[in-house]
Structures are given as C-alpha cells and as structure tokens.
C-alpha cells in the first residue's frame, strides 16, 4: 500500500489514492460494489496507526476471539494476517477466498460464516 498512501498535511488522516482503492481493497467485487467503494471512501484517522494500544488480560484477554483470514487480501497479506493471529493468541480461525472486504465482495458467504461463529460455544 505504501505508494498509494496519502497522509494529510496535518497528519490526522491517512488516505489511499482513488485509482488504487479497488485493487487494494476489493479487487474481487462487482463493478457496482467497486463504484460504491470509490464513491463512499473517506480517509481514515491516522492516530490508530501511530499510537500504541494497551490491552489487558482482564478485558481483551477474557474475550473469545475468532479471525477470518481473507486469502486474496491486497491490503493485509495472508502472511501478515497469520502473524497477527499468533500475536493476539487467537485459536479459532477461518478463511474466506476473498479480498480485504468480503462483506462487500461475497456477502452471503461472509454472513453464513458469521452465523456459524455466533453459534459456537465460547472457547475457555
């Protein structure tokens, strides 16, 4: 994503060049969905990318976590996703053969998977 990133002058937001949006986030989406992404895209706050996060065992640690890998993700590659899962201690993972935005490119498969996860008993 590096060359496609556009930091604001005040460093408060970080955007993506319009011509790169669909290839980075939703290359497998329909033309209509790609148009919606381009038409509705807004730059993201920059602070979450630069400020450290403090997680506690009492809060983050006691919540059952699941991860859905997006196998064709151009924003967060599969290898990085796998490293994030290990670092977060996530035990239960799934994979969708999709871009970064499976809720837009394959909404029915994503919904079905989320319903499956919702029915699973929490891992202790």
Characterise this structure:
The chain is α+β, with helices and mostly antiparallel strands and 124 residues long. The protein has a single domain (2-119), classed as Alpha/Beta hydrolase fold, catalytic domain (Rossmann fold), CATH 3.40.50.1820. 38% of the residues lie in helices and 15% in strands. The protein has helices spanning 21-25, 31-40, 47-50, 78-88, 102-105, 107-119, and strands at residues 5-7, 13-16, 44-45, 66-70, 92-96. The strands form two sheets. It has a three-stranded antiparallel beta sheet with strand order 1-2-3. Strand 4 (66-70), helix 4 (78-88) and strand 5 (92-96) form a beta-alpha-beta unit. The longest helix is centred in the C-terminal third of the chain and has 13 residues, at 107-119. It is globular and about 40 Å long. The mean pLDDT is 93.
Q: What is the strand and helix layout of this fold?
A:
Blueprint: E1 5-7, E2 13-16, H1 21-25, H2 31-40, E3 44-45, H3 47-50, E4 66-70, H4 78-88, E5 92-96, H5 102-105, H6 107-119
Parallel strand pairs: 4-5
Antiparallel strand pairs: 1-2, 2-3
How many structural domains can be distinguished in the coordinates?
Answer: 1
State the order of secondary-structure elements, H for helix, E for strand: EEHHEHEHEHH
Distance between the termini: 37 Å
Radius of gyration: 16 Å
- Strand content range: 15-25%
**CATH topological fold name:** Rossmann fold
The CATH superfamily name is: Alpha/Beta hydrolase fold, catalytic domain
Mean of residue pLDDT values: 93
CATH class: Alpha Beta
Structural classification? alpha+beta
Q: State the shape.
A: globular
State the helicity in percent bands.
25-40%
How would you write the strand order of the largest sheet? Answer: 1-2-3
> How is the biggest beta sheet arranged?
3 strands, antiparallel
CATH arch. level architecture? 3-Layer(aba) Sandwich
């Amino acid at each position: 994503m590096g060359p496609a990133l556009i930091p604001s002058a005040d460093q408060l937001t970080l955007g993506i060049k319009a011509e790169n949006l669909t290839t980075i986030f939703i290359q497998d989406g329909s033309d209509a969905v790609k148009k919606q992404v381009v038409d509705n895209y807004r730059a993201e706050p920059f602070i979450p990318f630069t400020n450290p996060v403090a997680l506690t065992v009492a809060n983050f640690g006691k919540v059952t976590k699941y991860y859905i890998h997006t196998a064709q993700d151009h924003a967060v590659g599969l290898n990085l996703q796998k490293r994030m899962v290990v670092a977060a201690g996530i035990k239960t993972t799934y994979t969708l053969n999709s871009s970064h935005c499976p809720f837009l490119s394959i909404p029915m498969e994503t919904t079905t998977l989320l319903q499956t996860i919702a029915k699973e008993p929490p891992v202790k």
